[in-house]
Amino acid sequence: MKLYKSLLFLTTGVAAAMSLVSCNNDWEEEQYAHYVGFKAPLDTEGNSVGVTTVYVPYTRMNSDGSPRYGAEGLSSYQLPVLVSGSTTNPSDLTVQVAKSDTLPILNLERFSHRSELWYVDMSDYASYPSTVFIPAGQDIGLLDIRFDFNGIDLSDRYLLPLTVAETPDCGYKRNPRKNYATAMLRVLPYTDYSGVYQAENMRFYIVTDGQGDNEPGAMSTVQTYVVDQNTVFFYAGNFDEKSLKRKSFKVYAHFEPSAPGATRGSVTFTCDNPEMNFTQNKPATFNIIQQRDEVQNYIMRRTVIMNDVDYTFTDYLTAPGSSIVYNVNGSMTMERRLNTQMPEEDQVIF
């Protein structure tokens, strides 16, 4: 009996030791395939659910404030290309990148036949190399995308569709998951004056007989989009990016600093649609306040305030056969929290 127990314990011990060795060998070996894909996480909220919003400076600057690529409106973004797996990439890889053909499918699935909301291919404003080299021992490469934003009209919802291409002899496996193998980049250029303004202090009134209604409508936020380095546009009143009629209600805001580099100045509002009967009722101003966060002192809080916003416009499309005149007035505020310990270009969400 004692011999039987001894043999049982010995057998159990040998089996356990073999299982430990087996586990260690499994751990040292590749557990997952070395798939190649992009790092482009999809938005889950906001105006771009299901695609990837990328914030890029309208003009990429050098440390001395000069345009890096020689002129305003020229910028860049480095999109990470990743090799997945539990072990380090063992081979030199030349990853092929191409334009994705899935944009028409995306538009139909998301917006059906509401073409005013469709994303527009921005390939005419972007350029990138056809390959990315990832050397052995590294799991990431960067696709250098260059942009020329001059002349772009962001009332169109631009999207840059990219995909990892695969050929029989390419030496890598394309990630089988669609949202890894394909990057649908909603590229939004930004300047000091563009972004989402809080508009709780803004009110809009229906104007009758030259007077504003006593019951104003409330506003929450106003998103502004880049036109050039000192000019943005937004949609009048409560029109926004999701409106089918948004292109007819664009208002331009030109910021004019009181001196080069000044944090104060004037704001001039204009409109290029005569049917809006747009009028700026009084001069508007802006000022920029920068201060360190009281708790996280490496965070710089940068606040842009637009004061004395006051304009009138006509909505001639919402109610067919009639026009409604609105007066919009108040102030708007936009805050960015900038981490001073990292380059601004790495802070892709403000």
Radius of gyration over all CA atoms, rounded: 27 Å
Number of structural units classed as domains: 2
CATH class of the largest domain: Mainly Beta
Contiguous uncertain segments of 5+ residues: 1-10, 17-24
Percent helix range: 10-25%
Kindly report how far apart the N and C termini lie.
74 Å
**Total of helices:** 3
- Characterize the biggest β-sheet: 12 strands, antiparallel
Order of helices and strands: HEEEEHEEEEEEHEEEEEEEEEEEEE
Number of strands: 23
C-alpha geometry: globular
Strand fraction band? 35-45%
Q: Which structural category do the helix and sheet elements fall into?
A: mainly beta
At CATH level 3, the topology of the largest domain is: Immunoglobulin-like
CATH homologous group name of the largest domain: hypothetical protein (bacova_03559)
- Label the CATH architecture of the largest domain: Sandwich
Mean pLDDT: 88
